[in-house]
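hey so i finally got around to running both of the ones u sent me last week. sorry it took forever, my laptop kept dying halfway thru and i had to restart like 3 times lol. anyway pasting them below in the order u listed, first the sequence line then the structure token line for each. didnt double check formatting much so if smth looks off just lmk and ill redo it

first one:
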Amino acid sequence: MAEPRRPFWTTLYFRVLVAIALGVAVGWAWPETGRALKPLGDGFVKLVKMIITPVIFLTVSTGIAGMADLKAFGRVGAKAMAYFLTFSTLALAVGLLVANIVRPGAGLDIDPASLDAKGIATYVEAAHHQSVTEFLLHIIPDTLFSAFVSGEILQVLLVAILFGIALALIGAPGEKLLGPLRTLTAAVFRIVHILMYAAPLGAFGAMGFTIGQYGIGTLANLAALIATFYATSILFVAIILGLVARLAGFSLLALLRYIKDELLLVLGTSSSESAMPLLMEKLERAGCPKPIVGLVVPTGYSFNLDGTNIYMSLAALFIAQATNTPLSLGEQLLLMAVAILSSKGAAGVTGSGFIVLAATLSVVPSVPVAGMALILGVDRFMSECRALTNFIGNAVATIVVARWEKAVDLGELRRVLAGGEALSAQESDRLQLEADQPRA
């Protein structure tokens, strides 16, 4: 029997929405108080990051260990990476196309020599330490246990995959360990729900700091760039991801309604990581198998950054247009090629969107890196849109990969996304076991 619907004012969605509005009001009316609220936002994000490591390890390792066909896991990984590369490149191309049509930086006529580049020095220095080779080597932790100490998502994912495969290969002894690990997984997700009681406080603090530190007035200075970026991201999600969702057999609008709590949490904290555990849990409840969710979502956080890629294209061409730096089609294509690689090299780094842009412009000398100082003041206002677009892109990617694998029941998926009651834990486990059986 379905539980009675909770009053809307008791939901996480409503509480976070109110907290965001209060944060904006406090930051605007009392800027100093707003700036002082920064520890609330930072503290909540740290709380969530604290639990991400065990969530990923337990979800991935138990999921793989419970699979009857380990070859399927490799197949899922290959499909996920193909999806990531395709849509990351497409996002970059969309950003370039819109920037050439709208030309948000045209007419500013700014001399690069007049810009103060001190504010971006930290980002440029960080970009110089990021390369694809270093990024790939960094996936391998120094020791088996150091990944859990550092909290690096891809390092934890690597260890979890190896541990899950090992559990599956040792047979009966591994089965004995699966039960306790699944119980531990349930306990860890319960901790996630406990932490969510602090979500409104975190959203209030983060939004209060953003408005208090940078002020709403700064938005007017670069309104054309901000409006173009938000409009492009909305169109990318609505048209491209909407079409992908339709082809996969589900409604993007229904998915957005289903994860609305998580979207508000991302908006309030400007961090897609703050909602990662909840997203993984909801995708599993919608019928996506645990191994697919455990692989695609964490990997997508580093390789499937649609919002970041749109931002890079728009920001790079905005700087070129604002400083009257002409770019040929060949130079723009080179810019996109470098961005595809640099976006992977700086993945997972704090302020990665700005660092990726610095890394890209450093390799393509046609565009002055000092021009980044133009957008430094409003980058924080665009980070929310980057995080939301990245988050939605990874939710869509997970369901699409699950559909490619024929591992999710379409009728059940549609029912849950439409607001139906999720399967019970027992029924979900039964369907999971059936999905894990080798194909005929």
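and the second one:
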Amino acid sequence: MGFRTVVIKSRVKLEHRLNYLVIRGEAEKKIAISEINTLILQSTAIALTASLLNELIENNVKVIFCDKKCNPSCELLPYYGSYNVSGKIKEQIGWTEYTKKQVWREIIVRKIKEQAAHLSDLGYETESSMLCDYASEVTDGDMTNREGHAAKVYFNRLFGDDGSRRKDTFANICLNYGYAVILSAVNREIAACGYLTQLGIWHRNEYNNFNLGCDFMEPLRVLADRKMLTLNETTSDYKREMIELLNMPILSDGKNTTLDVAIRTYVRSLFSKLNGKSDGIIFPQISYGYES
């Protein structure tokens, strides 16, 4: 698995040559495909070959395509991410409602606790305490929608009572981009493990190809929220800043690593839990003071 996130913004041609990604523009550059983790194509003027796409898929490189506004619009996923895909899909279909509701409860509890910690770091202790209470009240499947109540308090505190996640503000643009980057990384790991991104444990929209990814990414959204608050409209390249989320310092199972690596461990622990092979989920934790 590679470690580089490569962003292409200009009119170039991308080719595969001798295990390298070759970038042909005003000058020619080469990057070893084995070093690439994620390739983000931010320009619609980029041309690339089928041979390159096939090689990227075989090396489990996540490819994200952006629209005319440079926002992520789609991604490349392999049909066969694992040698025993059919067995993994049978496992996925066999997950019981009881197990899925238990896992969803753990995911939501973690998400709300991360939101509470963020508010506490910002000095909003009253709202943070309120979210901690919501986290303690989450039931299997979150039947009382503690997630929704927590989100209202959380985003009202971040954006103010007049703020909305639906408005086309700089903050929301940053968040949408950051969420898309995290979702893509989660989808990559789901596919690499041989499971279907379409079949979620809570998200079940028939028009959403990434229901399971949307489920798994919920506790990670706060990382994009934290990053967004460090940026403003004068930030020259906020998209690159949000992409750098994948390289942020993270604790995973007590070890210092990056978010991108921690997501692999996290997703695999979720599958172990859903398949009844383990009792715990290894959630990524912010690693303060760790130099990556």
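quick thing i noticed on the 2nd:
The chain has a mean pLDDT of 90.
anyway thats it, ttyl
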